Amino acid sequence: MDKKFDVIIFGASGYTGKYVIREAVKLLSGYKWAVSGRNEKKLIEAIKAAEIYCCESLSDIPIIIADINDEKSLKNMTMQTKVVVNCCGPYRFFGEQVVKACIETFTHHVDVSGEPQYMESMQLKYHLKALENGVYIVTGCGFDSVPADLGTVCLQDNFKGTVNSIKIYIQARYLNDYEAFGPIVNYATYESAIHGMSHADQLKDVRKELFKTKLPKLKPIIENISGLHKADDLNSKWCLSIPSADQSVINRSQRFFYENYKQRPIQIRTFTTFASLSTALKTVSAGILLNKMIKYKRGKELLLNYPELFSFGFTSRKGPSEEQNANTVFELILIGEGWNETFNDPVTNIDIPVNKKMTCKVTCINPLYGVASKAVLLSAVSILNDCDKMPYNGGVFSPAAAFKNTSLIQKLDDNGVTFEVIENNEIKAKL
User: Fold this and answer.
1) Most confident by average pLDDT, 206-215, 230-239, 418-427
2) CATH number corresponding to 5-138
3) Pseudo-torsion of CA 316, 317, 322, 325, nearest 10°?
4) How many helices and strands, by DSSP H and E, does the chain display?
5) How many other β-carbons are positioned within 10 Å of the β-carbon of residue 54?
6) Does domain 146-367+412-425 have CATH number 3.40.30?
7) What is the pTM of this model?
């Protein structure tokens, strides 16, 4: 099928979509691309905002009207391009329609979802059809979960031995003496999280169907630290274990590597860190309140209708300011433990105490929207350029499963998302 465009950005007038247009000016230079959505006026405004930001005329960027509730318009949009960059969330409500249209029109698809139920449901429902049609559907190509998923691959590839487990610590700070005021995330991100938490039981049912066989039991078992605690690995910084989308995505990638390459799965635990005990206690208190409210219909309605109040100012419908995004620094610390040896049968339980430790760090500025935009666009470029290095001839994948053998990590590193091995030392055997 002849395709007019290399990339179409769908949902381009939304909060994230506007950042994607900005980054596309640079990252899609030399490619034919267009923007799409249901409201032409808002799309024109988004293009004009990008023109001001980039100091470059974008008047020749085509606009394609497509509505998530109009299947014909979606197919008309998807059939014109090689890859759709889908920025239209929450994906629980607006994701599947685009995935379905892409597969039926032989079009690749990437998105910035951080919603495990959506991502795993798409794999369950559409993997075989995408494979049959030679289409790559890669979900979670934004801040959730490219840094963590590819950071795990980076550590694994540099370990030169066998990795048993990785603890992932999420850290955020501001540049220099910048003082933040106002929300940290956009409402759509908050909305997706609320819906995901309220439907957690549905995810269990999806996983029963998707993962028919259990992964091998691995030893030594990574310590399951729950509750607020100090992390010895981070100079006693306060931490809290979190059930993140990153962990869900990494587990899918590790399962793929095990089932296809007989690679020993890595045990993963994810944690968020806090600048102070008071901040940690406030966050825990907010989490307890949210968990209680979300169990009831009226409570969920209040959370969605009054985001500023019930997120303690963490989110708003306007989203964070340009200045705040530009001054937000994100660090992902991955601390891996394992063995110097590469075992002949890496899946077998290993009774030898771990004797090797390595730390990797992924660093970036403006993670939620700037990095998300870079990651999803470079994922699209990887499909365009590196299809021969991707698994099979299509299917529904997590980022690491899809892009492990491509140049995506290097492309990210070249564009402000740095992957570093910052420590490689021996630890004493645990008796």
Assistant:
1) 206-215
2) 3.40.50.720
3) 50
4) 17, 16
5) 15
6) no
7) 0.93
